[in-house]
Amino acid sequence: MTARTDVARMIDHTLLKPQSTAEDVAALVAEAQELGVLAVCVSPNMLPLMNTGDLVVATVCGFPSGAHHGEVKAAEAALSVRQGAAEVDMVINLGLALAGDFKGVEAEIREVVNACAESSRATGSEAIVKVIIESAALNDDQIVAACKAAETAGAHFVKTSTGFHPAGGASTHAVKLMRQTVGDRLGVKASGGIRDAEAAQQMIDAGASRLGLSGSAAVLDGFVN
After folding, report:
1. What is the rounded end-to-end Cα distance, in angstroms, of the chain?
2. What pLDDT is recorded for position 13?
3. Coil, strand or helix: which one is 111?
4. What's the pLDDT tens digit per position in 118-146?
5. What pLDDT shows up at residue 121?
6. Distance from CA of residue 164 to its chain's centroid?
7. What residues in the chain have per-residue pLDDT under 50?
8. How far apart are CA 142 and CA 92, in angstroms?
9. So what's the pLDDT on residue 124?
10. Which end of the chain is more exposed for a tag (fewer CB within 10 A), N or C?
11. How many Å is the Cα radius of gyration of the chain?
12. Which CB contacts under 8 angstroms, 24+ apart, belong to 5-10?
């Protein structure tokens, strides 16, 4: 089993409930620091975050439906980077993916990647773009095509799920397929429904290099150093 400290450094400690308050986010940051995780992921309206120390600050874009105009996603992502986000998790346009228009999916991802890169120039540190493909809503061919579109568009990670889609969250099958598709060129983030150490370890074994968790403490309790 992976060591607890190593798992902690793979975790985006996440709070994306729409009813979350500033106090909830402050508590998330404090817990993240106590747990020793890599990052916190919050809704874009909560930026900028204060007193984050060494934590990576991540946010979402076009969340959770992905049914936003590409220009709107790009503008949202650019603003988030200007407000301190080092990583942006964007949701693809699922309608385009299900229709087989992966050139359209790629073009939209590129809009966001370019917007983040432009904003990053002002901060002096390249912003990371993770592409949420909502894998449970796609078949295998569509998962592969979405991952290829993300890579061609210049994204840094592919990510399984928002955790909000009724089709479900992460699966080891999807993570394996995503890793096989992108190799070691991109990161793979498993997110959605990972609630214990066993599930987290299965995702890591399948090829996940990052985990999106809302219950990080419960997951880490199952690992030892």
Report:
1. 10
2. 98
3. helix
4. 999 877 889 999 999 999 999 999 999 99
5. 87
6. 13
7. none
8. 12
9. 80
10. C
11. 16
12. 5/36, 5/225, 7/200, 7/204, 7/211, 7/219, 7/220, 7/223, 8/35, 8/36, 8/37, 8/38, 8/216, 8/220, 9/36, 9/37, 9/38, 10/38, 10/204, 10/208, 10/209, 10/210, 10/211
Residue 136 is encoded by which pair of tokens? Answer: 């449970």
Question: Tokens 């061919």, residue?
Answer: 141
pLDDT of 154 reads: 98
Name the DSSP letter for residue 156.
S
What the chain holds in terms of domains, given with CATH numbers, is: 24-222 (3.20.20.70)
| Entry pTM | 0.97
CA distance 186 to 88: 15
Q: Any idea which residue has 């089993």 for tokens?
A: 1
- Supply the angle between the helices 197-206 and 172-182 in degrees, to the nearest 10: 30
pLDDT tens per residue, range 95-116: 999 999 999 999 999 999 999 9
For residues 85-110, one letter each, b for 16 or more C-beta atoms within 10 angstroms of the residue's C-beta and e for the rest, the string is: bbbbbbbbbbebbeeeebebbbebbb
- Tokens 């290829």 locate to 148
User: Which residues are catalytic, by number?
Assistant: 89, 159, 189
Q: Does 64 sit behind a cis peptide bond, omega within 30 degrees of 0 on the bond before it? A: yes
Give 5's contacts (C-beta < 8 A, 6+ positions apart): 36, 225
Instruction: Give CA separation, 156 vs 45, 105, 113, 130, 148, in Å.
Output: 23, 15, 9, 6, 12
Residue type present at position 151:
E
